Amino acid sequence: MNNNYNVTPWEVTGKVDYDRLIEQFGTQKINDELKKEFTEISKIPPHVMLRRGIFFSHRDLNMVLNDYKEGKGFFLYTGRAPSLGMHIGHLIPFLFTKWLQDAFGVNVYIEITDDEKFMRNQDYSLEQTREWSIENILDIIAVGFDPDRTFIFQDTEYIKNMYPLAIKIAKKLNFSEVKATFGFDNSSNIGIMFYPALQIVPTMFEKKRCLIPAGIDQDPYWRLQRDIAESLGFYKAAQIHSKFLPPLTGPEGKMSSSIPESAIYLSDAKDIVERKIMKYAYSGGQATAELQRKLGANLDVDVPFQWLYYFFEEDDDAIAKIAEDYAHGLMLTGEIKKILANRINDFLSEHRKRREKAIDIIDKFKFDGRLARTMWDKVHE
Ligand code: TYM
Fold first, then answer.
1. Atom of ligand 1 at shortest distance to CA of 202?
2. Residue 49 pLDDT class (50, 70, 90 cuts)
3. Residue owning the nearest CA to atom 4 of ligand 1
4. Three-class SS of residue 21?
5. pLDDT at residue 254 in the model
6. Does any ligand 1 atom lie closer than 6 A to the CB of residue 284?
7. Of 149, 243, 359, 368, which alpha carbon lies 20 to 30 A from 377's?
8. Residue 8 pLDDT > 60, yes or no?
9. For the whole model, what pTM was predicted?
10. Is the CB of 108 under 6 A from ligand 1?
11. Residue with the nearest Cα to atom 9 of ligand 1?
12. For ligand 1, atom 12: residue with the closest CA
C-alpha cells in the first residue's frame, strides 16, 4: 500500500494515519459503546488515555471484558527491549497496564528482551543489554505495579522455563511467513528470526485470555500469535493498542532513543528538560507573537500541546482551556512550552523518587514476590 508513513516494530516514520492503520492491520476501533461497556464493568472512570483515544484500537477487548464478567478472569502482558535510557513515550503502555491491574486486580507479566536487543544490533554486547535491563526494570517498577501480582523477567534468565513452549511455537511458524511479517532478508541473523517465538510465549503463560497493552508497532507479533494459539490449546491474544507520543522535533514518526533531541529521557535533569522543550519542541504556533495573537496555533502539529493532551494534563477542563486559548492566539508558544516543561519536571521528580525505592524491591518482581515464585516453579509446555 502506498502510504506517507510506515509502522513496523523497528521504525515509525511519517505522520501516521491511525484510522487507516486500523484497516491495514485488521484491528477494531475502540468506539464509544466499548468505552461505555468498559466503564460499566471496571466500575471506575476510564483512564485519561482511554478517554482521549490514545489507546484507540483493539482486538477481542470485548471478549476479555466478558471473561472478566463471567468470572473466568484474564491476565496482562507487556514488554520492553532494554536500552541505555527509557524516554517518556516508553512509559505510555506501562502506565496504562498498571491502571488496568488496579482496575481488575489481575496478574501482569513483563518481558525484558535482553536477547532481542542484543541480536538486533551488532554493536551491542550481551553484557550491555543485561545492564540496561536492570536500569529499565527500575523505571518500570517506579510506575507502581503490585509486587505480588507482577512478574518481570529477562529472557536470558527465564529461558529454561520458556524453552519447551518456545520450540512448539517456533515449529508452527515457517520462514516465509516470518520473513514477510518482519521484512527479514538473507543478511538477518538466525537468532532474530527465532526471536518472535519468544515474544509469543508469554501470551500463553496462563490458560486464560491474555490482554496486551502496547504501542501498535508491536502488532505483527500478535498477528502470528493469533494464527497459531488455538492449535496449541491457548487463547488468541487480545490487544489494546496505543498511538505514539510524537517526537519533540515534529509530529512525524515516534520518539526515538537514538535521537537525543527528539526525546525526554526519564533521567533528564530539570534544566535539560527546559532547554530541550524551549529549543526543540516543534511548534504549531506562528513565527511572531504578533502573528500568533492574530492567527493562533495549529494544534494538530503542535508537539507541546500534544504532549499535554496525551500525558501531562489529565484535567479535561484545563486541556480544553489551553486548546481554546492557544488555538485563538490568547496563549503564546513560549507560554505553552513553559507549562509543559514544568509538568514534565514535576512528573520526573516524583518518578525518580519512586525509582530510588524500586532498588529495594526489584527482587520481589524478578524472583520472590508471590507471582514470581510460582513462575520460577513452572515450566511452560
Ligand atoms: P520497545 O522497547 O521498542 O517498546 C516498549 C513499549 O513502548 C511502546 N513505545 C511507545 N509508545 C508510545 N509512544 C512512543 N513514542 C513509543 N515508543 C515505544 C512500544 O510500542 C512498546 O509497547 N519487542 C518489544 C519488547 C516486547 C514487548 C512485548 C512489547 C516484548 N514483549 C509485549 C509489548 C508487549 C520492543 O522492542 O519494545
1. 31
2. very high
3. 80
4. helix
5. 82
6. no
7. 359
8. yes
9. 0.97
10. no
11. 90
12. 244
